Amino acid sequence: MGYMGDDGLLYVLGRFKSLLIGSDGEKYSPEGIEEALVEHSSSIDQLLLYNNQNPYTVALIVPNKERLKKHLAHLHLDLHSDKGKEEAIHIIQSQIDRFRKGGELAGMFPERWLPTTFAVLPEPFTEQNGLVNSTMKIVRGKVEKTYADRIEQLYTPEGKNPVNTQNISSLK
Fold this sequence. Notes:
Blueprint: E1 2-4, E2 10-12, E3 20-22, E4 27-28, H1 31-39, E5 44-50, E6 52-54, E7 58-63, H2 65-74, H3 82-97, E8 117-120, H4 140-146, H5 148-153, H6 157-160, H7 165-170
């Protein structure tokens, strides 16, 4: 996806094969949203959005556990306790909520394109596990296939609540 500028240069905005499709059939490119969420969220290292004509967009998140531990230390909690893990999930949620109405980053993207819920993943996307390519770009199709069960779970009542058993167990 792109356009030719008045200066005669080609501007690339994204790839058609990475387009997400909302339940209303609207197509949108996730890359800019993913980059902004990671850039403005100290507790998120990697993130991939997913929607394929589903009722809402979801995210697969690789947390920055060191940053989460520092946030939790200020609250006299740690990532080894259930209370600490629940608070870590709330921290991630609050960083995403900064893009919603009332947040300091509201209006950057349509709210329907922001993740309603998310799965915390136990390991990062790396070249070794095949989830990023040699140019360090996330291989969307492989990530979606690898985490298909987690994505499906996000569309259940339990999965819609980010404080769920799978997210808590991923924060070991």
